[in-house]
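Annotators were shown the component list below and the corresponding predicted structure, then asked to write short factual statements about the assembly.
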Amino acid sequence: MARRFTGRTAVAGVGTTAYGRLPEYDQYDLGAWALRNALDDAGLALSDIDGLIVSRIGDYQRFGEMLGIDPRFVTILPGQGRMAGVAIEQAAMAVASGMADVVAVVYGNNGRSAGDRYGGEGDQYGSGGAGQWFPYGMTSPGAMHAMMFNRHAHLYGTRSEHLGEIASTFRRHASLNPDAVMRTPITIEDHQNSRFVAEPLHLLDYCLINDGGVALIVTSAERAKDCRKKPVHIRAFGQASSFGSGSMPPDDFWRAPMQRIADHIYADADCTRDDLDALMIYDNFTPTVLFSLEGFGFCPVGASGPWAAEGHLRLGSKFPSNTSGGHLSESYMQGWALNVEAVRQIRGECGERQVNDAGLIQYMAASPVCTSIIYGASPR
Amino acid sequence: MKTPYSKPLPVIGERDRAYWEGLREGEVRLLACDDCGHVRYESFSTCPGCGGGRSSRFKASGRGTLWSWARFHKAYFPGFAAEMPYVVAVVALEEGPKVYSNLVETDDVPPLGTPLEAVFEDVAPDVTLLKFRPMRPRNGTDA
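Structure shown to annotators:
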């Protein structure tokens, strides 16, 4: 299992671009911009890269041609947010197996300039199965998450105000992040007063579609010691899928696959939930945060709404989460920038939003492919 | 004068033609695996229950319950713009599969769990959509 990779790999460099509306850059440009920053961060050169994983960038060959590199190990993953964790995990596996020494993991997204809407005629959500429901007006991952939230509310009494706590908490974090797109604090009342998109979800329950790029350099724990910054170790990781519900909302809010990861990831990382200093939770929509907290066992099943409303996710609390502002307020970089935030927190580079002595941080993503990664200041 | 139907229409392929013909004739025809009996909505060639490759269409009850819903306030499809905001329901069919649909013959969205029954709505010469209304008490059985 994944345990044999435990602590053997590390993130040696991270790079991000500006986020926002950047029409002069395409996916390739944004990826290359982020990669330059990540290499500089690591003190490495393009010639050091012998592994390349790209996502959302249309073509790996064109990207390699543009960079002038001929890596040993190459792969491409679909431009879905669930693939951020998969990509980083594959990089760790490639390094741990000896297939590559230095893997560049690169993401470029020009969704804002390209006019991506995640709904309507081009919607491919649900493995391309979305189109069959257009005659009924069904489209968009946002609507599916609205239905999941509606169901959760019915089963457990979860309230929209609980989502407002998440949106306002992450916005407060974003207000401390100079790179965040949305930095003006909001209240739960602002959240409640924002217009509906797919009711019961409001505009402020939705992530921010923007242009941007993210890159990470993954290498062995040994080699990372010689890089410019202190290594951030990949302590443990896991994946589990749940495809049975197809284009329909799942009955269990993806709890079963998340539990399968939780069953081993803390033991693999040699830690408990209580040892974690921060959480990076995939937040395409606010309800996903609640589903993740339940799936990974931070609160009892059904209790995530009131639990979050107690303020546990705020900076200064037990589990400060999405300290960058996340997808909801920093930018929708589809999980990628959350992993970078974990690295920067552990290095102590986060300025006003820095978590004191952040030594262990968990990334988690709830979707038909669930992933999680625990990053640490030390390998064990 | 009736305005032309402008909502998206299904793309009907060979694999699911029998389903759409069923709706045309007022029946919900799902697929059941010949080997294990697993019921599915999707017109896959393979049974997700056992991996078997043989299945047959059968007439389902047309009954289900309201599992969840969302109300669209954003016009992703121009054809729905006139009905904004509109509701898409998730209906859990009695036989197991879920479908997205619309509720008819009701002004409000009933509570989740409400029993529903199929309504067959002809929208184009060769297209009938599967919609649902709250179940009506049967003759002679209502108090």
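Statements collected:
1. Residues 61-136 of chain B form a domain with the OB fold (Dihydrolipoamide Acetyltransferase, E2P) fold (CATH 2.40.50).
2. Helices of chain B lie at 17-24.
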